[in-house]
Design brief:
Elements (H helix, E strand, L loop, with lengths): L2 H16 L10 E7 L2 E4 H14 L4 E10 L2 E10 L15 E12 L2 E9 L1 H9 L1
Parallel strand pairs: 1-6
Antiparallel strand pairs: 1-2, 3-4, 4-5, 5-6
Amino acid sequence: MASNDLHEFYAEYVAVLNHRELHRLDEFVNDEITYFGDRATREQVIAAITAEIEAVPDLSWEVRDFAVDGVNLAARLVNKGTPVKPWLGVEPTGKSFEITEFAVYRTLGGRYTHMANLHDSELLKKQLHG
């Protein structure tokens, strides 16, 4: 995929997440991938994303920076939401948060073969318990 195509691919992926069209994730995630360094199936990835949305029903992702290096993608996003269940090790308090996420992906054949991310959980704790 060309760089412009990967930009469009990622933008559509984030739109799918934000619109809760998780039934479309098979368009983006390979059958088997490396997920946070471990082997995983697409179903396991979908289950993890579903659990995030269940914990934070209004969770949203906004892309702030995006880079492509061959088949590798990197993004800096802002995540917003109000947890109703524990998320990232933090109990819900009824307060909302806005944190940074850094995400990296590798693609092959038009789908992700590697996915990992890092959240600013310390800022999350401060916002929810501050």
